[in-house]
């Protein structure tokens, strides 16, 4: 069992945090979530934004208050064996994860954009999402199309991809909606298999049980 306890601070939405929630659950660590009052609590965060992970020792004494989504994810994934110790093997996962993050970021930027920039982002989303699907399908096939990206167990990129495709399976906003169909995993057999494998993981049972009890989180606030 872990020496550490964790508090995840974020808003009560999927947003940037669903991969992290999956990682913390799959790791079987002691973690809870808090939703700070915003913007009242903004200046109390080390970098002025969320997510933040408070890492405490077994006695509950805070050791580190960590910011930046991808850094937090990798700290947890490395700590609990969801990223391999070998740097090259880890980099293979991280490049796939960053590609997912980039397409997600384009979507977020699109939600705040108007006019010409908005049209540019629709084109960018289409190009990048098309590339992403071909890269991820190739990676899943390369691993024997067994529902995992690497080997035959759950890993960091499995969880990140699960969160990503689940996010986009909710109805998309405005004109990006027509492009979001590119990421409809029910039409991509390799990704459907991944989604089923993640949902069948016993280590994630608390995550899926909580989702049933609490209902799925809102995909985004930016309507
Ligand atoms: N680079 C940061 C970005 C974090 C970020 O933009 N967080 C947003 C929520 S998704 C936030 O805190 N917004 C409220 C604010 O900045 O006041 C990360 O990846 O963690």
TrEMBL record:
Residues 4-84 form the GST N-terminal domain. Pfam families: GST_C_3 (PF14497), GST_N (PF02798). InterPro entries: Glutathione-S-Trfase_C_sf (IPR036282), Glutathione_S-Trfase (IPR040079), Glutathione_S-Trfase_N (IPR004045), GST_C (IPR004046), GST_superfamily (IPR050213), Thioredoxin-like_sf (IPR036249). GO terms for biological process: glutathione metabolic process. GO terms for molecular function: glutathione transferase activity. PROSITE patterns: GST_NTER (PS50404). It comes from the Eukaryota. PANTHER family: GLUTATHIONE S-TRANSFERASE. This is GST N-terminal domain-containing protein. It comes from Coemansia pectinata.
């Amino acid at each position: 069992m872990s020496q550490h306890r964790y508090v995840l601070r974020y808003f009560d939405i999927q947003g940037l945090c669903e991969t992290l929630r999956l990682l913390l659950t799959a790791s079987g660590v002691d973690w809870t979530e808090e939703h700070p009052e915003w913007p009242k609590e903004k200046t109390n965060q080390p970098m002025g934004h969320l997510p933040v992970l408070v890492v405490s020792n077994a006695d509950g004494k805070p050791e580190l208050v960590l910011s930046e989504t991808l850094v937090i994810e990798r700290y947890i994934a490395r700590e609990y064996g969801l990223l391999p110790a070998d740097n090259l093997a880890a980099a293979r996962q991280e490049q796939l994860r960053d590609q997912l993050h980039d397409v997600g970021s384009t979507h977020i930027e699109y939600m705040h954009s108007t006019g010409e920039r908005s049209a540019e982002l629709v084109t960018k989303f289409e190009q990048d999402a098309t590339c992403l699907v071909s890269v991820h399908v190739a990676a899943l096939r390369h691993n024997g199309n067994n529902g995992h990206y690497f080997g035959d167990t759950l890993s960091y990129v499995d969880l990140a991809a699960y969160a990503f495709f689940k996010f986009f399976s909710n109805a998309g906003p405005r004109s990006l909606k027509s492009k979001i169909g590119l990421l409809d995993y029910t039409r991509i057999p390799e990704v459907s298999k991944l989604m089923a494998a993640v949902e069948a993981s016993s280590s994630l049972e608390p995550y899926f049980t909580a989702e049933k009890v609490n209902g799925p989180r809102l995909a985004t606030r930016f309507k």
